[in-house]
Predict the structure.
Amino acid sequence: MKRREFVRTAGGATVAGATVGTVGAAAAAEGEGGEGGDEGGKTVPVFGSYLEDANRYSEDGIVDARDQDSVTVDVGAGGDGYAFDPPAVWISPGTTVTWEWTGEGGGHNVIANEGPAGLDSGSPKESGTYEYEFTDEDAGITTYFCSPHEGSGMKGGVAVGDDVETTTLAGADLKEPIEFGVDIHEHWVGVTVVLAMSVSLVFTFFTLKYGESPHASGGS
């Protein structure tokens, strides 16, 4: 095989290989973003700004207990005993919530702040329990607090039923978009492929134009 034919063959193989690589990357990207790849995070009730500074509270930590008949909340949780744990729960009508004192952090109570449920465990105490059965009349969102430690962030909330305001949290595995909605990984794969093809074409051109031996077409 002459050198020129060899170079053409090698150049074509490189370009073909790059094309196959591009298709493979695109197929992989499609698989990643296909069925099940664009799932969002979980849906949680919106408890509002009142719980933003509540101890141990986060939207991602809201407990969905709508399939349970009873739920227990620790009173006096955390390192200093100034927290409800879990601070926010989502339940169905008919569920009984039991607040159980841990004995930490001094005297606590459970007092409704805002909402349909009339939560009131009475005067602060250091031990014991308080039960409340949430009915259809309590549907919605009720926030509450410990009266001696509300200023220290001892707050909580209960969402009852499905007819409450909700928000969907961003999924942890969602990809970070860049310009034109192209994923960062696929973007750099495309750039790499284009560069490889360009280098191959330039190499082939200069080899064909200047690289042929002056004796290739001459006699012996």
Notes: The helical segments are 3-32, 184-210. Residues 11 and 199 are 10 Å apart (CA to CA). The first helix runs from residue 3 to 32.
